[in-house]
Amino acid sequence: MIRIISSWAIVFSAITLFLSLVAPVLLAIWFCKKFGVNFSVIMAGALTFIIFQLVLRIPLLQLLTLRYPNLVPEPQDTAALLLYAFFLSLTAALFEEGGRWLVFKFLLKKQPSWQNAVGFGLGHGGSEAILLVGVNYIFHLLFLVLIKLDLNPFGGTMFYLLENSKAQLLQTPAYMFLLAGIERMFVIPAHIAFSILVVLSLAKSDYKYFLLALAGHFLLNLPTALTVFPYGIVVLYVYLATAFVLALLWIQKAKKYF
Questions:
Q1: Mean pLDDT of the chain
Q2: Comparing C-alpha atoms, which of 122, 78, 97, 161 is closest to residue 247?
């Protein structure tokens, strides 16, 4: 039986591409115009993610893995996977929330407003969506279309890359291509909520808000380990949807604290 790429896989991938690449930019532009926020605040948030996650944390984790190859657990070792998820979640919280605190402390300390905190979070969460999902889905969608049309105009390395991707893409349920985009939309409000907490910690000289941001970020990342369990992906997305609603409620409520 010859298997072909589902049209739904292409549609869902296109939706994810829009949600993770186009939507964050449109949202940032709309917010800056509506609330009079300088776009440099958005860029500061974006650069915070790039520097503290992509330039510092991920390369350090890669170096650590090279030095200690047994650090990454085997898929069947559930206890070790949970411990590793704890470690990754903790380092993500420390680097990203620490980065937010440093940037606002030394670059934006004269601008501790709700609008700037939200704009900063939009830049941070938006850049994460664009760089971790959006850019990848440009090529992902291209590959799906080429496979669907049974075309391979590439030569050399790209030819083998497309051929190797084909089997994996054919085995992936179509709905999975939508989940990455939904996840990014669920997570961006959380980044805004964390940014508000960090700015409040500086504006009020009260570190409890920073600790709440650390704890929130840690708890947001930790359930990724659930995917190793039956129905874990369902539980994960219900969890993220709950975090999405709570983040939106906090973003609105936080206005009165400034």
A1: 90
A2: 122
